[in-house]
Amino acid sequence: MPIITSALAGLAFVGCAISSVTQPPTAQPRRRETVINGKRVKTIDIHAHCIVPAAAALINHPLEAPGLLMTDTSTRIAAMDAQGIDVEALSINPYWYRAERDVAAQLIKTQNEALVEFCTASPDRFVAFATASLQHPDLAAEQVEHAVKKLGFRGVGVAGSVAGEELANPRFHPFWAKCEELGVLVFMHPLGTRELEPSGRLAGNGLLTNTIGNPLETTIALSHLIFEGTLDRFPGLKICAAHGGGFLASYANRSDAVMRTFPDRVGPFPKKNPTAYLKDGQLYFDTIVFTPEALRHLIAETGPGQIMLGTDYPFPWTSTEVDLILNTPGLTDDQRVAMLGGTAAKLLGIAS
């Protein structure tokens, strides 16, 4: 990415600290390298969080979790080295979808330029997903075009809904058309099913607003994109859904069955069975499903070519996603290489 010369307030990486093995004061932690069949493999983390404080301050948005202002990359790179992550694809969970147009435009400009500057400082370790103000779809399309053509971004991030509106709403078609035209990967990260929270259904123990609410929103968003025809209208779209795509892959055959059981409640879309969209190269999924059996099932429903390594850094949901891929039985060396970084490298234009 090109260097942006304007002075920026910096980038904060939010969440709980990742513990590491204590080293003697003079010792440098060893960088973990992944080798398959004698060949060094580049690992790419498709799901890694950050926030730009200067952008958040424009709408008085809190940093959401205890964070560390990054004046250098040492803390994050040390964690990556310990986990065996060579490259992180940074993304920001959208918090600006209710901002007015002028404020949203300034926020996105500040945010994208900060991401570019940070990635340019360590281009072998970081890439980023651009941000866009989807509540203003025409502006969002312009922002994506500028981000890709002028700033060098390789993808764009979105939430699972836009201030209560579904991503499949026709008013977002200009945004999807621009993403398809530019050939960028779209990383979808949920914000939870906030419409359920006032009812109290997700209250109580277990942080259900996140534990259930986040994957549920992804499931709803993907289902609408399938059933409302968005994926049919824009066949060149490529979307990576966080957290293994939510619950969709675990019960997608019911979506096929509803087309037979209640055909009068389905048409005119989708043009094929919903399960087909999980395998045809439009939808991709990260590995945040926690166990080898869960990953095996996700692969069985989608195919190994649709899966990319994700850690959710710095939130400690998982321990070592590299080991999850290495320890899942039944995979070929080529399939492991693709999931560890090969597929992400192709979609994000990273040299492998």
Task: Explain this structure.
With 352 residues, the chain is an alpha/beta fold. The chain has one domain (37-347): TIM Barrel (Alpha-Beta Barrel), CATH 3.20.20.140. The protein contains 13 helices and 14 strands. A five-stranded parallel β-sheet has the order 8-11-12-13-14. It has a three-stranded parallel β-sheet with strand order 4-6-7. Helix 4 (137-149) packs parallel to helix 5. The two termini are 17 Å apart. Residues 1-9 and 12-26 have low confidence and may be disordered.
Specify the structural class: alpha/beta
CATH class: Alpha Beta
Oligomer: single chain
Helix content: 25-40%
Largest sheet, in brief, is: 5 strands, parallel
Strand order of the largest sheet: 8-11-12-13-14
Report the strand count: 14
Unreliable sequence segments: 1-9, 12-26
Distance N to C terminus: 17 Å
Let me know the average pLDDT: 90
The percent range for strand residues is: 5-15%
CATH architecture: Alpha-Beta Barrel
Number of domains: 1
Radius of gyration, in Å, reads 20 Å
CATH topology: TIM Barrel
User: Number of helical runs?
Assistant: 13
CATH superfamily: Metal-dependent hydrolases
What are the secondary-structure elements, in order, as H or E?
A: EEEEHEHEHEHEEEHEHHHEHHEHEHH
Shape: globular
